Amino acid sequence: MKVFITWAFAIALLSLVLFSTSAAPPTTPFPEFCGTMHYWERTPEGAAFKARMDLTGACPTNGPCDASGTRDGKIPSSATPFKIIPVRFQIFANNDGSNVAGTSTEISNQMALLNLDYASSRIYFVYTARTNNSTLYRNCPSNSEPAMMAAFAESPASQINVFVTAYAAFNNCGIATFPWQNSSLTSTGGMMLQDFSMAPARFGATGSFIECFSHEMGHMLGLWHTFRGVTEVAGLSPPALCCRR
Ligand SMILES: [Zn+2]
């Protein structure tokens, strides 16, 4: 994880300038641990990207942030100042405040891991959090994710909203908005994180979900799933995987 995101710093910064289409809700459960790619493929732009991918059998490029020369020219060094990115947690609970999807300790632990993962990329995240009492969205109904996000997002143009609850529509650990999507800086952009990704021990998930938050944050900053192009950077391993994996 840490290795992959070293070069991704460039992509992250470039792709914070955004363009593209609105998100469409998923209609079926996703088979993979992360649903970001599938979710995006349901947007018009994502569908077009998938069509190109299926046609060529390879991962197409997607704008200047995908150019290897651009990316390599932005790889940070130990002298590069940290880029500070604000995160706003939207933690859901029932109407009476019970069944909270993330405690202050759980949030703090996830943030510590996130900042550890991104330290070598010279990215540091700061955060604030609030609890939203809504039994309805504490188990977010299928296809209601955009409405939930629109209702609870705060300042999406200047901070990354992370909506933590249980999602009925998908069974993967989380879904993020790619920065090139039109919705990314709007109230329907941000990250949807399952409660078991926030608190694997409390919600009965395995340890494999512990770094879902860091993984999805990579998508928020413009990394493909799972980090296509890593072998183009000297010394990195393991071998690159297709953008769909
Ligand atoms: Zn992913």
Summarize the structure.
By secondary structure, this protein is of the alpha/beta class. The chain has 9 helices and 6 strands; from the N terminus they run ααααβαβαβαβββαα.
Bin the strand percentage. 15-25%
Number of helices: 9
| CA(first)-CA(last) distance | 15 Å
Q: Which class do the helix and strand fractions yield?
A: alpha/beta
Number of strands: 6
Uncertain stretches: 1-30, 236-245
The secondary-structure element order is HHHHEHEHEHEEEHH
Mean pLDDT, to the nearest integer, reads 81
Task: Report the biggest beta sheet as strand number plus sense, adding barrel if it closes.
Answer: 6 strands, mixed
Cα gyration radius (Å): 17 Å
Bound molecules: zinc ion
| Global morphology | globular
Please estimate the helix content: 25-40%
What does this structure look like?
It is a single chain. The chain has nine helices and six strands; from the N terminus they run H-H-H-H-E-H-E-H-E-H-E-E-E-H-H. It starts with a helix and ends in a 25-residue tail after the last helix. Helices cover 31% and strands 16% of the residues. The chain is of the alpha/beta class. Mean pLDDT is 81; it is low at 1-30 and 236-245. Strands 1, 2, 3, 4, 5 and 6 form a six-stranded mixed sheet that branches. It has helices at 2-14, 36-41, 44-56, 68-72, 104-118, 135-138, 145-152, 195-198, 212-220; strands at 83-93, 123-133, 139-140, 160-167, 174-176, 191-194. Strand 3 (139-140), helix 7 (145-152) and strand 4 (160-167) form a beta-alpha-beta unit. Zinc ion binds next to helix 9.
